[in-house]
Design goal:
The protein is about 45% helix and about 15% strand. The protein has helices spanning about 5-10, 25-35, 55-60, 75-85, 100-105, 105-125, 160-180, 200-215, 235-245, 265-275, 305-310, 315-335, 350-360, and strands spanning about 15-20, 40-45, 65-70, 90, 130-140, 185-190, 190-195, 220-225, 230, 235, 255, 260-265, 285. Helix 10 packs across helix 12. It starts with 5 loop residues before the first helix and ends with a helix.
Amino acid sequence: MEFINLKTIRNMVKKVALITGITGQDGAYLAQFLLNKNYTVFGTFRRLSTPNFWRLQYLNIFDDIELLPCDLLDSYSIIETLRASKPDEIYNLGAQSFVGASFEQPIASGEITGLGVAKLLEAIRLIVPEARFYQASTSEMFGDNKHLFQDENTEFCPSSPYAAAKLYAHSMVKIYRKGYGIFASTGILFNHESPLRGIEFVTRKITNAVAKIKLGLENTLELGNLDARRDWGYAPEYVEAMWLILQSDKPDDFVISTNETHSIHEFIDRAFTRVGLNYENHVVVNEKFIRPVDVNYLKGNYDKSHRVLGWEPKTRFADLVDIMMDKDLERWTNWQNGVHFAWDAWNYPNEKKILSRKLKYD
C-alpha cells in the first residue's frame, strides 16, 4: 500500500486565502496569482459610496473573488471577517499607503496602518490561531539612512508618519510570533510598480502624464524632488514573494528588492524617451510636492529571500518603465478612440476634467 504524507494531503486540499486591501495594486495581483494556484480567495474592502473595484475588473477576476466589507479600525468587523472566511493564509495589504498623504493625515495613518494590524493580530490569535499571516512591511521604515544597501539587519529610522506606523505594525508581528507562536511573517518590500499603481504615486504620475503630453492632452508635468533614489521592482513578481514567504517552513522577515537604485530623474528620462520626447521641455519642479522630511536613498539586498525562498526579480528598471509607459499610452489612446474599460482616471479630479471635456465635445 502506498502512503501519502500529511504535507502532500494538505497541498491537495483547496486552500483559502484572505486578502485585506484587495482593491489595491498588490491585492489585485496577489488575488490573480492565488486564483491561478486554485485558492479560494476572500478579499476585504472598505464600504464607500462608490467602491473602487477597477483593478479587479481590469484583471478580469472580480467575479472570482468573495468580497467582504471590513474596517481595520473595528475589531468586531475583523472578527466577523475571519469567521466568515476561515482562512488558511491571511495577507494584510490594507493600509493608508501613500507616504505624502500620511503627513496630511498622521493620526489616521497611525490608526489604520499601525493599530489596525494589532487589532488584526489579536483577532487571529482568538479566532484562527493556526492561520499563516503575512504583513506588508516597507522599505520606508529604513528612512533617510546612510547605508549602501538595506537588508533584514539594517536598523530602522522612519522619516514619515506612514513609515512610523508601518514600523509599529512590523514590531507587533514579531511580538505575536514570539509571544503566541503565530505563524506571522513580514515582507519588507522596496518600491514595486506596475500599470495598476495609483496615479498619486510618482511613477504612475509620470507615465500617466507623459502619455497625455504625447497625445496633446497636456503639456506640463509638475514634480518635487527629482534626485530621490529608489529600488524599483515589478509588482506582479513581488506578490509571488509574498506567497513564498507563507510557504516557508518557519515564519521570518524578508527583504524583497532588486538590489538596484535609480533616481526619479532617470525614471522621467526613460519615460519621455520611450515616446520620443525630451523631458526638459515639459517637466517643472514645484515646491509643493516636496515632503517635510524626505527619504533620498533606498537600495535593498534580497540575498536572504533568494537563499531561503528561491525568489529573485526578473524585470529590471528600464523594462518596468517601458511596461508602465506603454500601458498608459495605450489607455489614453483607447479612450480617445471611444473604448470603454476599467480604469482609474475617473477617480481623480484633474483627470476627470480632461475626460469631461471630450464628452462635452462629443
